[in-house]
Amino acid sequence: MAKLKLGAIPDDKPVKLSLDLPAAIHRDLVAYAEALSRETGQPVSDPAKLIGPMLARFIASDRAFSKLRSLRSSPQPAPRSSGPATSNEPG
Fold it and tell me: Rounded to an integer, what is the distance from CA 29 to the centroid of its chain?
């Protein structure tokens, strides 16, 4: 049997979202939950609980997003002034 990309689902405090899924995606989600239950030996009480870990896995594997995220979190150099230097000394 092929190893699934998701492992056991950690119990974490969720943020409530409401979304509509195409019927085919929902059927696949239910089938994935059944396969995951067989592989891990832990029942998946609600297939919707797989959506968060699936999105997390997808985001973690997106190299372009990782690069964008690291660029946003790295300190940006201060903009350099192109005008003449000013002095606070009286003159």
Answer: 18
First vs last Cα of the chain: how many Å apart? 82
Distances (CA, A) of 79 to 75, 82, 87, 89: 12, 9, 18, 23
- 30, 48 contact by CB (below 8 A): no
Low-confidence residues in the chain, pLDDT < 70:
1, 75-91
Is the Cα torsion angle 64, 66, 72, 76 positive or negative in sign?
negative
Distance CA 1, CA 18 (A): 33
The pTM score is 0.62
User: Which amino acid belongs to residue 90?
Assistant: P
